[in-house]
Specification:
Largest sheet: 8 strands, mixed
CATH architecture: 3-Layer(aba) Sandwich
Radius of gyration: 20 Å
Helix content: 25-40%
Distance between the termini: 71 Å
Order of helices and strands: HEEEHEHEHEHHEHEH
Number of strands: 8
Shape: globular
Strand content: 15-25%
Number of helices: 8
Mean pLDDT: 93
Number of domains: 1
């Protein structure tokens, strides 16, 4: 009996130690910015793109890139799309979103603290605060129609924008491979949900969001559990769900890539983000 009790106490101590370690290092796991090498960063801001900076706490700075929408001006304000990337990306990886700018939408690529050229350390609260400030800055620009601003997020970026949407409601929102809540995913590491410091409860955020949502999921996503897209679809009163063939980071072929882009294009056109005359295939 003493051996059994001793073994139980040892296991409890090991579990508590593991919980303490997870509490301390979880943001390093959730935001693996250290795995992004300097070769992924462009040496100069691409031509035609404006670099925007926010001053945050303790002298830290966060960057965003603004891609002007074709034809948008102070005399003729146009729509805008705010993009938030996944946790293994930087804004430099997402210049392919120029296709939205070519169709008239000003595109804002928001960077995260500690990623790319931005300083600081990421967390849910900080990323949401920074992105909210960038949204306010975007809406104040004369070439942007503040009533036609859409959100486009990928993976953890959908969680960031879902929280931002609580206070800054978008005209429409697109969620690519979205997790419904990160705290539930912690069980795979033996961590109870209440210990997750940045849970990104998108399921709660979309429940009360009065905006149309397009959810684009993948049929063989090995990172986000298969039921998360359905959870968000059920929680949101104005959502549509499209399942594509592919894994979390890759679609199966060019046909699926076109299908995804066409779905986004049609959705943004339907909800007034893109102009009716841009009905040509993107």
């Amino acid at each position: 009996m003493r051996k059994v009790v001793r073994m139980i106490l040892i296991l409890i101590c090991v579990w508590i130690a593991w919980m303490i370690i997870v509490w301390m290092v979880q943001h390093s796991i959730m935001f693996p910015r250290g795995t992004i090498g300097p070769d992924r960063l462009l040496k100069h801001v691409p031509e035609g793109i404006e670099s925007l900076w926010l001053d945050t706490d303790n002298g830290k700075r966060v960057e965003a890139w603004l891609i002007p929408g074709e034809g948008a001006s102070a005399d003729k304000p146009g729509p805008a799309v705010v993009f938030a990337h996944g946790n293994g990306e930087v804004i430099d990886d997402n210049l392919d979103l120029r296709w939205l700018a070519d169709l008239g939408a000003t595109v804002l690529l928001v960077e995260y603290r500690g990623y790319g050229r931005s300083s600081g350390a990421p967390s849910q609260r900080k990323l949401v605060d920074d992105t909210s400030r960038f949204v306010e800055l975007l809406k104040s620009r004369p070439e942007v129609d503040p009533d036609r601003v859409a959100y486009l997020g990928r993976s953890i970026g959908t969680g960031v924008l879902a929280q931002v949407a609580r206070d800054h409601v978008p005209t429409a929102m697109i969620m690519l491979v979205p997790p419904a809540r990160l705290d539930k995913m912690a069980w795979r590491f033996g961590v109870p949900p209440f210990l997750v410091r940045s849970p990104f409860r998108s399921d709660l955020a979309v429940r009360d969001l009065d905006a149309p949502i397009l959810i684009l999921a993948r049929d063989r996503d090995g990172i986000i559990p298969s039921n998360h897209a359905g959870m968000l679809h059920e929680a949101s009163p104005r959502s549509e769900l499209i399942m594509l063939n592919g894994t979390h980071n890759w679609l199966d072929d060019d046909d699926e890539m076109r299908r995804e882009r066409n779905a986004m294009h049609s959705f943004l056109l339907k909800h007034g983000i893109l102009e009716a005359q841009t009905t040509a295939q993107p």
